[in-house]
Amino acid sequence: MSTADADLFAVRALELRLLDPATRADPAAIDALLHAEFVEFGASGTVWTRRATIDELSSAPPSGPIEFLDMEGRSIGDDAVLLTFRTRNGDRTALRSSLWIREDDRWQLLFHQGTLIGITLTDQ
Question: Which residues partner with 109 through β-bridges?
Answer without folding.
Answer: 34, 100
